[in-house]
Amino acid sequence: MSNKKALGIDYGLKRIGLSLSDDTQTIAFPFKYIPNTSLKEIIAKLEEIISNENIGLIVIGMPLGLKGKQTDLSLKINEFAKELAFAHSLCKTKNPIPIVIYDERFSTVQAQKSLISQNVKRKKRKEIVDSVASTFILQSYLDKNKKNDKNL
């Protein structure tokens, strides 16, 4: 294991929720959200986070439809992932960080239910639901990969 954190991204049309893992990529935590403004601004903010937080893996949630088909949002996320990968490849880092697209159906619903069960007020839920959804995505990915590592 590389002792680098994983960054989870829940891409939304208004806000982009972010989560981080610990250095062993075992546990995910809500981090923050950034407004979905221009692609250039978003990528600049993500590059800063990647550098400051010692990121070694990026997991982007992909909301597939119920039948596993791509949605309009999926197409935007694919474009975002390509731009992020391209921008990151232009950076001066020696080793590009792997970017994984991960099925995230129902992550926002799970996040909402979790926050409601914790009696988080509606206004506060609206502020943090994106980073919590991102945490569900990242934790699900990390758990799945831990199981896969054990099966090797």
What tags apply to this protein structure?
5 strands, 152 residues, Nucleotidyltransferase, domain 5, 5-stranded mixed β-sheet, alpha/beta, globular
Write the layout of secondary structure elements.
Layout: E1 5-11, E2 15-21, E3 28-35, H1 39-52, E4 55-62, H2 72-90, E5 99-103, H3 107-117, H4 122-151
Parallel strand pairs: 1-4, 4-5
Antiparallel strand pairs: 1-2, 2-3
Helix pairs in contact: 3-4
Quick rundown:
With 152 residues, the protein is of the alpha/beta class. It is 49% helix and 23% strand.
CATH class: Alpha Beta
Biggest sheet overview: 5 strands, mixed
**Termini separation (Å)?**
15 Å
Query: Given the structure, what is the number of helices?
Result: 4
Radius of gyration: 15 Å
* Number of beta-strand segments: 5
Q: What percent of residues adopt helix (DSSP H or I)?
A: 40-55%
Instruction: State the order of secondary-structure elements, H for helix, E for strand.
Output: EEEHEHEHH
Query: How many separate structural domains?
Result: 1
- Shape estimate: globular
CATH homologous group name: YqgF/RNase H-like domain
Strand arrangement, major sheet:
3-2-1-4-5
Content of β-strand: 15-25%
- CATH level-3 fold name: Nucleotidyltransferase, domain 5
Structure description:
By secondary structure, this protein is an alpha/beta fold. The protein has one domain (5-151): Nucleotidyltransferase, domain 5 (2-Layer Sandwich). Helices cover 49% and strands 23% of the residues. The chain has helices at 39-52, 72-90, 107-117, 122-151, and strands at residues 5-11, 15-21, 28-35, 55-62, 99-103. It has a five-stranded mixed sheet with strand order 3-2-1-4-5, sandwiched between helices. Strand 2 and strand 3 form a beta hairpin. The radius of gyration is 15 Å and the shape is globular. The two termini are 15 Å apart. The model has no long low-confidence stretch (mean pLDDT 82).
